[in-house]
Amino acid sequence: MEYQNFDVEVAEGCARVTLIGPGCPEMGHLCDEFTDLMLRLQEDNAVRLILIADGDHAFDFHHNLDSLAQSVGQAEGFEVLSADEEIARRIVTLIAELPKPVVAATRGDIRNMGFGFFLAADVRLATTEATFTTPDLAGGLLPGWGLTHTLPRLIGGSRALELLWSGRTLNAAEAARLGLIDRVIPPEHFEEVIDAF
């Protein structure tokens, strides 16, 4: 099966899932594709490990602010946000409960919902050029995609609150020091390192 948001290659027990498509995908379609893909890989006995890497776009999923702005003050605004959060819960839970290990690897800028998606993986890799931020609160939105659960679990409550409240951007070195990523990779060795999986 072909997907609009993901490219999939399976070799030597590793399924490499590359993010493709628009930088701000339609969330319902993204979730449907991702769920179908993960369930297929879960049932595939030839797959021992799943590696999710960014392609044309990084882990940059976020609310469609134009759509939200048009629905401000209307009941449908709440419905849009609620639907997005339900999608987020399904995706993050799916990653967390997969019986096969999941590795996430990035060389780009991770923000908003994509941050929660990335942190749900068992192992997280990033190049020295990667950045991480969650500016949702600064934009008047609650941080989604499990960030209010995952960040405190990984780095402690006070550090998590500081990141969420400030919305500041972390470079890869600081993210690694805090425990958000497990290995920092020189950009020129990105493909070599993830191919080793």
Give structural attributes:
six-stranded mixed sheet, 2-enoyl-CoA Hydratase, Chain A, domain 1, 197 residues, 43% helix, single chain, alpha/beta, four-stranded mixed sheet, globular
Question: Quick recap of the structure?
Answer:
The chain has 197 residues and is of the alpha/beta class.
Structure explained in plain terms:
The mean pLDDT is 82. With 197 residues, this protein is an alpha/beta fold. The chain has a single domain, classed as 2-enoyl-CoA Hydratase, Chain A, domain 1 (Alpha-Beta Complex). A six-stranded mixed sheet has the order 1-2-3-5-7-10. A four-stranded mixed sheet has the order 4-6-8-9. 43% of the residues lie in helices and 21% in strands. It has eight helices and ten strands.
Helix and strand topology:
Elements: E1 6-11, E2 14-19, H1 27-43, E3 49-54, E4 60-61, H2 65-70, H3 75-97, E5 102-106, E6 109-112, H4 113-119, E7 123-127, E8 131-133, H5 147-155, H6 157-166, E9 170-171, H7 172-178, E10 183-185, H8 190-195
Parallel strand pairs: 2-3, 3-5, 4-6, 5-7, 6-8, 7-10
Antiparallel strand pairs: 1-2, 8-9
What are the low-pLDDT stretches, counting only 5+ consecutive residues below 50? Answer: none
CATH-assigned fold name: 2-enoyl-CoA Hydratase, Chain A, domain 1
- How many extended strands? 10
CATH C-level label: Alpha Beta
> Nearest-angstrom radius of gyration?
16 Å
Total of helices: 8
Order of helices and strands: EEHEEHHEEHEEHHEHEH
Assign the structural class, choosing from mainly alpha, mainly beta, alpha/beta, alpha+beta, or little secondary structure.
Answer: alpha/beta
Instruction: Examine the secondary-structure arrangement and name the CATH architecture.
Output: Alpha-Beta Complex
Main sheet: strand order: 1-2-3-5-7-10
Strand portion: 15-25%
